[in-house]
Every structure is written in structure tokens, then in C-alpha cells.
Amino acid sequence: MNPTPHSEAAFSLRPAQDADAEALFRVYASTRTEELAKVPWDDGRKDAFLRMQFEAQTRCYRSDYPGAVFDVILVRGAIAGRLSVHRRAQEIRVMDIALLPEHRRRGIGGRILRGILQEAERDAKHVTIHVESFNPAQHLYERLGFQRVGSNGAHHLMEYRPAALVEARS
Known about the structure:
The protein is α+β, with helices and mostly antiparallel strands. Helices cover 39% and strands 28% of the residues.
């Protein structure tokens, strides 16, 4: 049975492993398809560029966010996406959440984020995430209670403040 576009598919998370690198690259590349469609490069050049960008992002995440958790999102045992989260004393940073196109708009990302928001409520931490200005996922983030708190034009910084922190500021 194939889920309808807005149904919630069953998923699980597990720590990313070195053997997942190619599948995680495919997830990353799928997030850049629309952007690179406008670039007049052949497929080989696009692939080389994407691999360079993926490797640079991976190195940056691992060096700049010590202690971050890097998970794969599994649907029916197959890699469907990736989730990278860095937890600090007062903040949970969702560094990356991405799904392959066939797993988007099925409720998976929302369920994952709601779990993180429950953790934030329990631990009285705010949650932050960066999103590209053209990424439709920002509408999901807004529905979940995130607010835009910064922008550089290309990316928006969005933040969720749990009730305990909002009340403390009042």
C-alpha cells in the first residue's frame, strides 16, 4: 500500500554509518535538484560539484558541532533521509533534516520535528533551524510554531520557543 501524499508513513532513526555515505549523498543531491536545474552544466559536472559540496558540508558539521547526532531516516528499512541535531545547554539546533522526494509531504518530517519540540518543551530549550528562503518546508516549520528570527536573503533562521521560555520572558 502506497501512502497518500499527506498520510503518515512509518519510519525509524538509526545512527549514520560510513557505509551510508552514498545514500546520504543521494539525499543531499535531491535537495539541490531544483537549484541546479538552472545551471548549464552537464550531469557529470553537476555530480562532481554536488559531491564536493556534500563532503564540505559533512566535514563542517562534524568539526563545528562536536557531539552532534547524525541519523539516517529509514522507511521500510531503506534510507529515506537524514537528520543532524546538535544539543547544547539551552538550544537544540536542527542542523539538517532532509528526505528523498518520494518521502516528502507524508508527515515524516513533521513527526520527527514534533518529537524534537516535545524534548524542547520538557527540557526548556529553544530549537533553531536554518531553511533556504525558497524551501517549502518553512511552511511546515511555521505550522509547528517556529518563527523567523533572522534572514540573510538566501536563508532564514527560524526558532521555536517552548512555553516555559515564552512565559519566563513575559
